[in-house]
Amino acid sequence: MTVVAPRLTLERQLLRETPLVFACDEVGRGALAGPVAVGASVIDAAGARRRVPEGLRDSKLVAEARRPDVAARAADWVRASAVGWASAAEIDEVGIMRALGLAALRALAAVEELGFPAASGVVLLDGNYDYITPAGGRGLNVRSVIKGDRDCASISAASVIAKVARDAEMTRLHDDHPVYEWGRNKGYASPAHRDAIRANGLSAYHRRSWAIADAPTLF
Predict the structure, then answer these.
(1) Would you identify the family this protein belongs to, as annotated (predicted)?
(2) pTM, entire model
(3) N or C: which end of the chain has fewer CB within 10 A?
(4) Per-residue pLDDT tens digits for 162-192
(5) Residues annotated within a binding site
C-alpha cells in the first residue's frame, strides 16, 4: 500500500486569512493505563513555504524506531510545539472526551506561553468531533479535520510529537510497574497487559472507570 505524505494544502489556504494555524492531535485515547496526550503545533506562512520534513506521517504510520528522529525534525520545522496531558485520574473523573479537551487546552496554553496565542489563529483538530470547545475553548476557532493526521502536515507534526512524548512517559512508568509491560504495550490492551491486570490488579495509573479486565485487544 502506498502511503501518501501529508500536505500543506489546507494550512496554506487558511494562512491567506489568518496569521497562524494551530494543529492538535491526541495520543492514548484507547489505552487502559497512563495519561492521554495532545500535541499542538504552530505554523505560519513562512513555515508553510518550507518543505515538509522527510518521513513525516501520522504517528501510527511511522515505525517506532524512527519516531524520535521524525518528531525532532517536525519540532524544528514548526514555529512552536507542546504536549498537554490529562491523567488517568482525570479521565475517570470527567470522562475521556472532556479529558482530551483539557489536554488540548493545556497544550495550547503551553504554546501561548511561547508567544503564540491560539485565539489569534485557526485551530485544526484531527477527527470529526471538536472536544476542545466544550472543555473551555469557546473563544477559539476550532475546525475538525477528518483524517487530518494523514492529510495535514501540521497535524501530522502534532501527532508524532505527542506520540513520542507519551511513549517516553509510559516507558518511564514501566520502570516502577514492570509487571504490566508498559515499555512494550504503552498502556494499551495487549493480551499480556490484560493478563497482568487479572493477576496483579490495577495500578494508580490505570483508568479505573473502564471495564479493563475484559477490554478488547486494541492492537
Answers:
(1) Belongs to the RNase HII family.
(2) 0.93
(3) N
(4) 999 999 999 999 999 999 999 999 999 999 9
(5) 25-26, 126
